[in-house]
Amino acid sequence: MTERVLVVEDNDLNRKLFCDLLRANGLVVEPCSDGREFIEIALRFDPQVVVMDIQLPHVSGLSLIEAMKGNDLLRHIPILAVTAYAGKGDEERIRDAGAEGYLSKPVSIQPFMAAVNALLDRRAAA
């Protein structure tokens, strides 16, 4: 079974980059540009990993992580949080919300794929 990754990113260029990288590595990808649609898409798509931008319009990525971790059908899915605003304490706050992985933007290809693969491997081992 091919692994599925849900990419929640409002920036068109970043979303395209993430999706293209993941597809080039053999993953099935579902893009989501509006966080307000995230839960509905996640329930339908059933991803093995979620790549979550933290700074989204209309709703915070932190709020989405907390909502996902509070949902019995979604809480088991690991989250890689990506953010351009990597200030002191941000990583801890994001991990406390429930994200298993964290990268600051700009994201380099190798660390991004290593982080996604680590979450996929960890899930497969569980």
Automatic annotation (TrEMBL):
<dbReference type="InterPro" id="IPR011006">
    <property type="entry name" value="CheY-like_superfamily"/>
</dbReference>
<dbReference type="Pfam" id="PF00072">
    <property type="entry name" value="Response_reg"/>
</dbReference>
<dbReference type="InterPro" id="IPR050595">
    <property type="entry name" value="Bact_response_regulator"/>
</dbReference>
<keyword id="KW-0597">Phosphoprotein</keyword>
<dbReference type="GO" id="GO:0000160">
    <property type="term" value="P:phosphorelay signal transduction system"/>
</dbReference>
<dbReference type="InterPro" id="IPR001789">
    <property type="entry name" value="Sig_transdc_resp-reg_receiver"/>
</dbReference>
<protein>
    <submittedName>
        <fullName>Chemotaxis protein CheY</fullName>
    </submittedName>
</protein>
